[in-house]
Amino acid sequence: MATLVKLDTQASQSPAYASDPSDLLTPEELAARLKVKKSWVLEQTRRRGRVRPNPLPCIFLNKYPRFSWREVCQWLASKK
């Protein structure tokens, strides 16, 4: 049975859902897909400190960030 997880969708107007927890990426997995360092991925999610008007969309499961590849692609497209 699949569990629905509501994702943080500030950039999009309709909520996105992951139908399976395995659809969510860890920071390491996302960094590998984007070919960047894990520290860059984590820095892009931060909302405190330096004002970031459009942070990388993620959800936090406790203190662990997880990413939807579809939401990340939309975020990247909005950066153009």
How is this fold's topology laid out?
Blueprint: E1 5-6, E2 17-18, E3 24-25, H1 27-34, H2 38-45, E4 59-61, E5 64-68, H3 69-78
Antiparallel strand pairs: 1-2, 3-5, 4-5
Fill in the keyword field for this structure:
alpha+beta, three-stranded antiparallel beta sheet, 5 strands
Provide a descriptive summary of the structure in words.
There is one protein chain. The protein has 80 residues and is α+β, with helices and mostly antiparallel strands. The protein has one domain (5-78). It has helices at residues 27-34, 38-45, 69-78; strands at 5-6, 17-18, 24-25, 59-61, 64-68. Strand 4 (59-61) and strand 5 (64-68) form a beta hairpin. 18% of the residues are buried. It contains 3 helices and 5 strands, in the order E-E-E-H-H-E-E-H. It has a 3-stranded antiparallel sheet. A two-stranded antiparallel ribbon has the order 1-2. The protein is globular, with a radius of gyration of 12 Å. The chain is 32% helix and 18% strand.
Per DSSP E runs of 2 or more residues, the count of β-strands stands at: 5
Major sheet summary line: 3 strands, antiparallel
Percent of residues in helices: 25-40%
Number of helices: 3
Mean pLDDT across all amino acids: 78
How much strand? 15-25%
What shape does the CA trace take?
A: globular
Radius of gyration, taken over Cα atoms and rounded to an integer in Å: 12 Å
Helix vs. strand class:
alpha+beta
**Could you say how many structural domains there are in total?**
1
- Segments where pLDDT lies below 50 for 5+ residues? 1-15
Order of helices and strands: EEEHHEEH
Read across the widest sheet, the strand sequence of neighbours is 3-5-4
